[in-house]
Known about the structure:
Elements: H1 5-10, E1 18-21, E2 25-29, E3 39-43, H2 55-76, E4 80-84, E5 100-105, H3 122-133
The structure holds guanosine-5'-monophosphate (5GP).
Residues 5, 14, 16, 28-32, 40, 86, 92-95 line the site of guanosine-5'-monophosphate.
Amino acid sequence: MVESVFSKIIRGEIPCYKVYEDEKVLAFLDINPLSRGHTLVIPKIEVAYLHQLPDDYAAAIGRVLPRIARAIMEATGAEAYNILQNNGSLAHQAVFHVHFHIIPKFKDSGLIIGWNPHRLLEEEAEDLLEKIKERL
Length: 136
Ligand code: 5GP
């Protein structure tokens, strides 16, 4: 597997503006921010997709994500933000190392979302529940 740029950032071989670091987690400013304060939070393990992330790294990220978001909101004065986590190129993932975007939302900058929902059908819901639950 080709190593991602984020592993090089973790090892300090590529510089970053470090926001937070502990044993299992690193957070740094995105190099091409959608808005002021746009930050990436990553596990210190080279795993491409969220569903491949070991529980201890998932827990470590979950523990600090709200705290980092809180600090970014206070520092930027943003009152809204999006957490974005892309998996797969079809879902706009460009760096294949799990990462959570924290993207402050301002009137003129931040994440723009295309959202085209359909109404959930009863048979669709029942079929999905059965298939998902047996795999959990
Ligand atoms: P994705 O589309 O994979 O969810 O987002 C990857 C993000 O990583 C992008 O927002 C991009 O700007 C950011 N990024 C890519 N390379 C670097 C880098 O070398 N340094 C930093 N700080 N951010 C990067």
